[in-house]
């Protein structure tokens, strides 16, 4: 009896091994050329494959996440990230920030200026919603348009890519040499984990994020209005017509901004609402309901910020972050001029972003959580994009 039991166990065990051997790939990192920049420098593409055969491809140009290839509920793989097939696509585009690492300051700074420790700083005004100029996403040449040093690496069986960039004192008008490291990991459970860190030699604002656009049905396949969104946020920061926060932290209850319970993105997007009008749809900063507050000034614990479900494919995206807020932007400015990886033009609202962040314009808003990094301090923050199905 005892013996039989043992051999049944051994049989079951062997079954698992076989199943693993048949279905699973060896996690690996593959490097290929991604084309050359206008100045002749070469960009590379690093494809991280996990043991499930799911893949995330990242280029050292702008630290851009080029592909996220994950299964639907039938196990069929599709690329759920908007973007281009080579670096020239990203260079030509210049303004959608598909998949990119954003810095030194993600989101907007009013009038492209701020005062820090009594000194005034002037930034490029590279954006002007409602014809009101502001600084957006780090300036004319933000972290999305520079070549990062890349090192492929493994943590046990998890493939990763470490990127480093040193932003010079005065670059894009910001003070201090900022030494930035961003590490991407892609785990067997289809979690794309992004670890950001930075140090500086002068006080400077820092707000790093990733600007991936997702379409969980697959990039190039229609709009994202049927995707069902939940945001773990009872409040948001309303904006003026230049998309700069008014300073108010407003409850979402009773407004089209209430995603505390799941709603299709398109359900209320055409309602008469001044905030929706200013953003041309959703393009706002939601203040996350955190079980614990922000520990210190730059870091909290990893908590769930958002969940998106796409009914046709069954794909689910969960976003976890240590940041206090998330910019939910639903691709209102996409206008069909950008033709993506599968030769399909990305029309309005064919991708959405969940940019984890500190609040926009914090350097000018004393009541917002602090974004100033000082010498001797370490900026560290983590965000996870977790893919599954239902
Ligand atoms: C951010 C902003 C949007 C838009 C996009 C880039 O998400 O909030 O207003 O500028 O970047 O197109």
Key features?
mainly beta, Beta-galactosidase, Chain A, domain 5, nine-stranded antiparallel sheet, disordered N terminus, binds alpha-D-galactopyranose
Any idea what the radius of gyration is?
21 Å
> What is the general shape?
globular
**What's the arrangement of strands in the largest beta sheet?**
11-12-13-14-27-23-22-17-20
Strand and helix order:
HEEEEEHEEEEEEEEEEEEEEEHEEEEEEE
Average of pLDDT: 93
Total beta strands: 27
Instruction: Determine the fraction of residues in helical runs and give it as a percent range.
Output: under 10%
Q: Report the sheet with the most strands, covering strand number, pairing sense and barrel closure.
A: 9 strands, antiparallel
CATH topology: Beta-galactosidase, Chain A, domain 5
- The total of helices stands at 3
Which ligands occur here? Answer: alpha-D-galactopyranose
Number of domains: 1
Assembly context of the chains: single chain
Task: Briefly note the structural class of the backbone.
Answer: mainly beta
Strand residues, percent: 35-45%
């Amino acid at each position: 009896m005892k013996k039989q039991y043992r051999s049944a166990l051994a049989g079951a065990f062997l079954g698992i091994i076989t199943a693993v051997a048949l279905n699973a790939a060896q996690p690996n990192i593959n490097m290929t050329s991604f084309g050359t920049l206008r100045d002749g420098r070469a960009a590379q593409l690093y494809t991280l494959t996990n043991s499930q055969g799911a893949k995330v491809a990242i280029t050292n140009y702008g630290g851009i996440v080029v592909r996220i290839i994950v299964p639907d509920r039938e196990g069929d793989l599709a690329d759920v990230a908007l973007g281009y097939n080579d670096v020239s696509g990203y260079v030509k585009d210049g303004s959608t920030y598909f998949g990119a690492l954003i810095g030194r300051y993600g989101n907007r700074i009013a009038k492209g200026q701020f005062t820090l420790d009594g000194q005034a700083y002037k930034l490029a005004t590279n954006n002007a919603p409602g014809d009101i100029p502001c600084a957006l996403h780090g300036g004319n040449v933000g972290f999305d348009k520079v070549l990062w040093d890349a090192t492929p690496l493994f943590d046990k069986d998890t493939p990763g890519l470490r990127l480093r960039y040193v932003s010079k004192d005065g670059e894009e008008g910001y003070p201090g040499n900022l030494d930035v490291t961003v590490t991407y990991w892609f785990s067997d459970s289809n979690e794309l984990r992004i670890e950001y860190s930075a140090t500086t030699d002068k006080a400077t604002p820092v707000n790093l994020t990733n600007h991936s656009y997702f379409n969980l049905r697959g990039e190039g396949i229609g709009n994202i209005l049927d995707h069902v969104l939940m945001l773990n946020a009872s409040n948001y920061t309303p904006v003026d017509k230049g998309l700069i926060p008014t300073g108010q932290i407003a409850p979402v209850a009773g407004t089209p901004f209430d995603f505390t319970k799941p709603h299709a993105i398109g359900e209320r997007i055409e309602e008469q609402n001044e905030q929706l009008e200013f953003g041309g749809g959703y393009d706002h900063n939601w203040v996350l309901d955190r079980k614990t507050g922000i520990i210190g000034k730059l870091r909290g614990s990893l908590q769930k910020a958002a969940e998106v479900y796409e009914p046709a494919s069954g794909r689910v995206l969960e976003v976890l972050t240590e940041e206090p807020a998330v910019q939910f932007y639903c691709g209102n400015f996409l206008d069909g001029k950008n033709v993506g990886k599968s030769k399909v033009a990305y029309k309005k609202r064919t991708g959405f972003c969940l940019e984890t962040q500190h609040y926009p314009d914090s350097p000018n808003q004393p009541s917002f959580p602090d974004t100033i990094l000082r010498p001797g301090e370490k900026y560290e923050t983590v965000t996870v994009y977790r893919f599954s199905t239902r």
